[in-house]
TrEMBL record, chains A, B, C:
GO molecular function: nitrite reductase (NO-forming) activity
Matching Gene3D superfamilies: Cupredoxins - blue copper proteins (2.60.40.420)
Pfam families linked: Copper-bind, Cu-oxidase_3
UniProt record similarity statement: Belongs to the multicopper oxidase family.
PROSITE patterns per record: COPPER_BLUE, PROKAR_LIPOPROTEIN
Source organism per UniProt: Caldalkalibacillus uzonensis
Name of protein: Copper-containing nitrite reductase
EC number per UniProt: 1.7.2.1
InterPro entries assigned to the protein according to its UniProt record, in alphabetical order: BlueCu_1, BlueCu_1_BS, Cu-oxidase-like_N, Cupredoxin, ET_Amicyanin, NO2-reductase_Cu
Superkingdom: Bacteria
């Protein structure tokens, strides 16, 4: 395929994304088809191409058997097996299990069973306000980061319905479910709803998060879609065994926020928060009275950095690894939690009034937002006995005001005010943009006219059926000249030399939320003067053409 | 307030810092008052300003009730409650506790009780020598990093007296105390002494560290003020239960040293040390004999990076999570410790002589200094049976020689020889200095004349009563031109365009140890020639004015 | 010694490395001798020099007593002690141990005992293919990364023979050995073979890795030389106690790959892999059947980043810290492992078919390669019951093709195609190259003619007997001009101003695999034109001289 044809193709695809009236129900099928054609063309000389073809089309192709993500609605083979009592412990022979009395069953239940508890989670792209004048543009669950806190009891049958009201595919991974979840709710197209039922047999504090398949599993989590699901144990913890109960229960998530996709991959967050707001419980300390029994259900979402949770003035009475009552420790000043690790923490408020600071003792994270406080006073008549891990929510009016007044807006995948241009001088002649973590890095590049800019795809997880994963391209959406790359696998490059002064905006077609900008300046330092020269010559006629041609293309590739 | 007035104000404040004969007993009250005025002025348009005003002056203002740090000397309400036997387990009703037999009491004791053990810790800013020709300029306890190792027995009543001989506020957080410490020793002004008494009821290996409130809690710890407090269990560990005892006891702290505040926040240390010296126990291996029982009381201070402690040629016999005898594990090649995590480790020296290397298996840290060795020989007649975690100390003469001969001096918050200028070229037109981790980054900037330099405050924890926390400004102290910014909250910016060649030095007034430099060069490459043009025109008359005016201002704001 | 003499000396040394017919059997003895002379010359003014001399020559010199690495072949003193029953628990008196019944003996056995199992490991420098078009040039064991998986039973006497077929010293640290290993296999010269015997008394999952002494211990591990040794417990785990056994056993290593030595020290890997290949078990999912008992022997090699291993759709039944059956936990969604931490993980495949994704929940690492999958189907007639942690191996033909077709070649210590030149502009006047992690950073520097380039040694662990550790120098091997530095200790610098346009290649003589490049361009932008001007004037005559002179020098310094 010639470069001209490809460019036309790309333009149509751009229009597909921007003009299309309906949201994208699957991750760019057009891109998938195109990408596979390209692999065949270069199989002779490319190791990656060969591996991908083997993987998808070879005799031994594993994805043919059981795809990583499947739209599997037909009756399940598990149900066709000889009927098994769902409460019965399961062993490798699936019949009378001797010797495994101590083991609870897995979470498998036939999908037509009646649930004890039902929850609905709504996923989309959106903004949240973090406090301190900071607005975050990322992905949300129920318009929050973290999403809603789900609390169930051991042995409940739980139904979770997942609604995608966004423009791209989302999905769900639920750590409390000891059974297949990917094929039920793993990938949910824009506008679709799916659900899963399972029985929670192991008590504990679990993470759930968006997981639309492949490279997007970590990326959507890094962008903000996660929450906590707690399975309360039948017999409680040591405290309950002593005949007591917690006076205050804090469901606490520590989580990270990134200003670029590269930072997300490298584990360099800009903010680290407790329950969705910078220093939330410093601004609104948790009221307790001396002598109160306090329980923290703690989940470190991460998704990169460890936390060592500590309270100034408190030694733990008992802590429970992953929240299971059998995994008990005595005393201790901290609990160490990697990403998706959890603890149940029990302690008492001492006799002496004052503030008891809550902090991750990984102090780089603490300074970035992960500090809170318990305010202990004999005068607190009423205390809030349950504090959930949900991020704060705001009305549309409040959010509109936040957007207007925000000191800064940050986003991992598109340029905002904080993305200062990365400036290339004439001596450097060449500039490189990494495509990494579903974003461009640097997001804004400023180069002298005549500079060759090279994009290199540093994302690696390049393929999983039905999902576009870490394959990216570069396509201009505005600017004096137009340019577009083919789809790039890991380590593949595309270069373009800018010969006209002006501002160029571009996106990645398979992931149209990924945005970048190149500012080309006159090396005699007249940059800036022509920045507004938005070039519309091709946009209008093609938009018209797109209106007619695209519905046909879409229909073709979706069927 | 006009810019001119503000500049005058700033100059006076500079003089306050440099001219004042007495050290600063509180964190810049003048700055606090000024900052609150500014918040009122911009409350209409700034989200941050509104939040801060709500927090401090609103109806629901939590800090009115129980400030994060308080100079609370009056009798405590805890003592006014119905008298409770301090040894009695405490429950939520504070009376006869049934069912909580297994739980020790918290650490609360009335402050007039007689202690079993008393320690004095002296905090200040100062230098230490790290070995390998490296001098570190930071914050110290008893002139050491780490500070002294404190060893007590379970159920001791401990008094810790904290003396601040520095120029800025310091304070103390003591992890072994299961009771309020912040309000007794949380913030101690320059020249002041405070103390706290508490009963250590949970055995374990604990961290203590400077904690003067708010943003300074993590920062002073990152800058070097920490140590170990061990509470020995009444009945010992498995070894004692077998009727044996350790032949060699090593109290071991792993800790990190940073060359910029930004590195401290990002968790990128320049050095990682065992007990305060680079490769201390390689240079002076710990002598042991085959068959010796060795116990390590291990604390990873961090404050950012995990450690997996390992000894080449040793498998652990027993290790105890956080040093509590009930949290016992068998075998294992490593122990994993996040910041402020601790372990007690018991093992035997095998029959075979030779060196047994001690190392964190996080090998990036090992190469930066965290390697040591046990030297095992049948010929070692005497072995040192107790090795404390205290950093090395030197006489004033030794330190003077180290300062003169040091290959390098490093400091997180002020420029030293290793801070190479960050050079801006004429094409870049603009430069950005981040204010982060109570330091400027880059600390030394070199720009062509006419460049606009923008400072942006990336510190976030902007307020806690009585402490200035992460609010910073920029104020010239020398150079051809003068400039000064208002106080900056998180994400706020200040710009200044340099029009004269020369060297400019500046500080942050609320944290005058924070120092930065801008070198302005002629873009025709004659830079350097005018560097010495220190501009005195404003310093002398203002110094005189300051002598008269400042005492009045200080008195006004301190009262 | 004058600079001219030193340069001649360096040239001879270069020839030593490149011309010598035999590989280097010890780490540059010539360098060691030279370095010690330099320390004496500067002892008056250098703190480092004094410390090193004290360490090696002082009265109290610890290295005289028991060197960190020794070529100890004579009968061991342990054998000369009163004979002890090797199976008998050892205590500090080495006789009848009362009260230590619960403790197994250490691993010490006389070296003339007959082993139950014998393994041979072959170490050298070499390439491996990582998948996705990436070839890695580093250090290997048995031509693999990770090396072979060694499986033994509790109380086996194990012999490990280590063969060095590389060009530099290698060695071995074996974490399962609870006895001296360093002095038997700690340092093995090029072409040499050594061995060690030990008894494995503590069951568990252990790391082994190259450890040639000093700074090289972490560096060779960071470069790829490691593997897993599992000691299976006599009585199995809970599963075996229930009368069952695992249907599928996965030996799983997570490990990191670096593209520069600096990244290795900073803990910023380019790739994170399971068992040596990017997304290995996505491309070839592990086949299981619903109801299967699966056991994972998990080792996080690191050597820097934590892992929280998780399987989508699985809650653990039992996990065992470090693989010891006594350290059992129930339930949980993740296990947290720092570098060299390990777990045994037992779980069941639920009734529902589909893919169960295996992933580290530290999602930055997951996106870089650490994702896999179990494919569960009732139709899988045969499943592979044991999957080892060995990295993949390829024939020489396959590797040759990979080298030709690779999208990218990466290496921590020498420039490859991915090492874009770091460009210095004329305004900057000066450039700095860090020597860190046994590599130059940046590896390729491009400077205008007339620029002063400064090399600074940021490696710290500067000395351990018999090994050159973190001492480096800079010596030109090609280019229009020649330059050479003296040996640099930590923080020491060397500067050279380039006055001729062209390409300069250089190495570090003690570590000749460390390679760097400086490209000098005409600031009027004619760079590139003279790049090929390889300067041979000095190479040929000196090569001839070297042929005659070097054997004499070598003989002198080796004896």
């Amino acid at each position: 395929m010639s470069r001209e044809k490809w460019q036309l193709c790309v333009l149509l695809a751009i229009l597909l994304v921007f003009v299309a009236l309906a949201p994208v129900s699957q991750a760019c099928d057009f891109c998938n088809v195109k990408f596979m054609e390209m692999q065949e063309e270069k199989a002779e000389t490319s190791l990656q191409a060969r591996e991908i073809l083997d993987l998808v089309r070879g005799d031994n192709a594993p994805y043919r058997v059981t795809p990583l993500t499947t739209d599997n609605k037909q009756p399940d083979k598990a149900d066709e097996q000889e009927p098994i009592e769902i409460l019965q412990p399961m062993n490798d022979k699936q019949n009378g299990c001797t010797g495994c009395d101590g083991l609870p069953p897995t979470s498998y239940v036939p999908q037509d069973v009646e649930p004890d508890k039902k929850f609905t989670l709504t996923l989309k792209e959106g903004d949240v306000y973090l406090g301190k004048g900071v607005l975050y543009s990322g992905f949300t669950i129920d318009d929050k980061i973290p999403g809603p806190t789900l609390i169930v009891k051991q042995n409940d049958i739980v139904e979770i319905e997942v609604v995608n009201t966004g423009k791209i595919p989302h999905g769900m991974s639920i750590h409390a479910a000891y059974t297949q979840t990917s094929k039920y709710v793993g990938q949910i197209g824009a506008g679709e709803t799916k659900s899963i039922k399972f029985k929670v047999t192991y008590p504990g504090v679990y993470m759930y998060h968006c997981a639309p398949g492949g490279h997007a599993i970590p990326m959507h989590t890094l962008f903000g879609q996660y929450g906590m699901l707690v399975v309360l144990p039948d017999d409680g913890y040591e405290l309950e065994k002593r005949g007591e109960k917690p006076d205050v229960e804090l469901y606490l998530i520590q989580h990270e926020m990134y200003k670029t996709g590269k930072d997300a991959i490298m584990g360099d967050p800009l903010y680290v928060l407790f329950n969705g707001q910078l220093f939330r419980y410093v601004e609104d300390p948790i009221k307790v009275r001396p002598g109160d029994n306090v329980r923290i259900y703690f989940l470190n979402v991460g998704p990169n950095i460890i936390s060592t949770l500590h309270i100034v003035g408190v030694v733990w009475d008992h802590v429970y690894w992953q929240g299971h009552p059998d995994n008990v420790f005595v005393g201790g000043q901290t609990v160490l939690a990697g990403p998706s690790d959890s603890w149940v923490i029990d302690f008492r408020i001492p006799e002496d009034e004052g503030n008891y600071l809550l902090v991750t003792h990984a102090f780089g994270s603490a300074t970035r937002g992960a500090i809170g406080a318990f305010s202990a006073s004999y005068d607190h008549e009423e205390v809030v006995s349950v504090i959930l891990a949900d991020g704060p929510t705001y009305t549309e009016e409040e959010l509109a005001e936040f957007r207007e007044l925000a000191e800064r807006i940050i986003s991992p995948y598109e340029p905002t005010d904080i993305d200062e241009p990365f400036i290339i001088t004439p001596e450097q002649q060449k500039a490189t943009v990494e495509i990494i973590g579903n974003s461009f890095y640097p997001k804004v590049l400023k180069v002298p006219v005549g500079t060759e800019v090279e994009w290199i795809n540093e994302d690696i997880f390049t393929y999983a059926e039905g999902e576009f994963a870490g394959i990216h391209d570069v396509a201009a959406t505005s600017g004096p000249e137009m340019f577009a790359s083919p789809l790039l696998g890991h380590g593949e490059k595309f270069s373009y030399t800018f010969t006209e002064v002006g501002e160029y905006e571009y996106i990645c077609i398979p992931h149209p939320y990924m945005k970048g900008k190149v500012i080309v300046y006159d090396s005699d330092e007249k940059s800036g003067s022509q920045q507004a020269s938005f070039n519309m010559w091709y946009a209008l006629p093609l938009a018209l053409a797109g209106m007619i041609v695209l519905p046909i293309i879409i229909r073709k590739f979706r069927s």
